[in-house]
Design goal:
Elements (H helix, E strand, L loop, with lengths): L1 E5 L5 E5 L11 E9 L2 H8 L15 E8 L11 E4 L9 H4 L25 E4 L2 H4 E3 L6 H5 L4 H11 L8 E5 L3 H10 L6 E6 L2 H10 L3 E4 L5 H8 L5 E6 L4 H10 E9 L11 H4 L5 E3 L8 H9 L9 E6 L3 H9 L1 H4 L3 E5 L1
Parallel strand pairs: 8-9, 8-11, 9-10, 11-12, 12-13, 14-15
Antiparallel strand pairs: 1-2, 3-4, 3-6, 3-15, 4-5, 5-7
Helix pairs in contact: 5-6
């Protein structure tokens, strides 16, 4: 089969590799019908994730059709159309029993495209298929369901739920890429008072308006602190969500939050970040971090299927499965191309 193989920082290739096979009796082999690229993949290619070694097939999001299952798989069968989650869950370890699948101790967590071969390929082996795939409802497009593999549960769980968004809150989202837009979209489920989107690219701020932000700030032209304080009588935002993964974005998220507020860090950071504890120790600020668990995926599936969330609007560019070079080029230059999510299909 063909797959996108990582060959070290800045180097990747669409090339021939062996077909995946059943290794453990809880495995499934899934034919990839639709796949996307994540900002984390860009971090990998920059060298920010050294655990990803040369020779690894990239990718951790897919919708596909099961071709084979191991003897221990109970609820999936060949021919089933499934969402492949970005998080793999053994289902039995301490953290899985708590619903914290991202911290799985039994061989799961974020492994696809990280510590085992991933989804940017014609086929993928998915461990723990019963607990790491979700049946796709009839009548919903592959590309809509694909947005539930990672970005929507990540923005919702690590941003909105960890940030404790409540009715009437002022929520400031730093970064209007796909994760920030996911946080904006799902924050609206809790009836916030204001959702503020902050970014450097006007194209992404325009997208943020479509996804539910009622105030947008281009931080290259305007200080977000002035706007946030003017809306909150000088207090600051109740919740800030850091959705970029660079030091300046985290520092902005901390700077914008009110005393007693919550900062939810979602961004993938590849270098140290300064946290000014000498200024923040007295402000009763809560800071959360996290890897998505995907425990919310069934709920989000119902919301997308019921047309309460429009997941399809994330998709801005479409490519054939073999055109990864062009897809990465477009996605990596999102400020110029306006790309939110790119989808590659068989």
């Amino acid at each position: 089969m063909r797959a996108l193989v990582y060959h070290g920082p800045g180097r990747k290739a669409w090339e021939d590799v062996p077909d995946p096979r059943i290794v453990d009796d809880t495995d499934a082999v899934v034919r990839v019908d639709a796949v996307t690229i994540c900002g984390t993949d860009l971090h990998i290619l920059k060298g920010d994730v050294p655990e990803v070694t040369p020779g690894r097939i990239l990718g951790h999001e897919a919708v596909g059709t099961i071709e084979a299952v191991g003897a221990g798989v109970r609820t999936r069968k060949p021919g089933d159309r499934v969402l492949v989650s970005c998080i793999t869950a053994c289902g039995t370890c301490r953290f899985c029993r708590e619903g914290r699948y991202g911290q799985c101790l039994g061989g799961g967590g974020w492994i696809l495209g990280h510590t085992i071969d991933g989804t940017q390929a014609e086929r993928v082996r998915v461990p723990f298929a019963d607990t790491s795939t979700h049946p796709v409802p009839d009548g919903v497009a592959d590309e809509e369901i694909l947005m539930l593999a990672d970005i929507l549960p990540t923005g919702y769980e690590v941003g909105v739920l960890n940030g404790g968004v409540r009715p009437g809150d002022v929520v400031a989202v730093v970064g209007s890429g796909p994760i920030g837009l996911s946080a904006i979209m799902t924050a609206r489920l809790f009836s916030p008072g204001h959702v503020i989107a902050i970014d450097l690219a006007d194209s992404r701020l325009e997208a943020a308006k479509r996804f539910g932000a009622d105030i947008t700030i281009n931080s290259s032209r305007q200080d977000p602190l002035e706007v946030v304080q003017s809306l909150t009588a000088g207090l600051g935002a109740d919740v800030t969500v850091e959705a970029v993964g660079v030091p300046a974005a985290f520092e902005d998220a901390v700077r914008l939050v009110r005393p007693g507020g919550r900062v939810a860090n979602v961004g993938v950071h590849g270098e140290p970040v300064t946290f000014h504890l000498e200024k923040q120790w007295i402000r009763d600020v809560t800071i959360t971090t996290g890897l998505v668990d995907t425990g919310s995926t069934p709920t989000l599936l119902r919301l997308v299927t019921g047309h309460q969330l429009d997941a399809g609007q994330f998709v801005t560019h479409r490519f054939p499965l073999s055109d990864f070079d062009r897809a990465y080029e477009v996605f990596g230059a999102a400020g110029e191309t306006g790309a939110l999510k790119v989808v590659l299909t068989r």
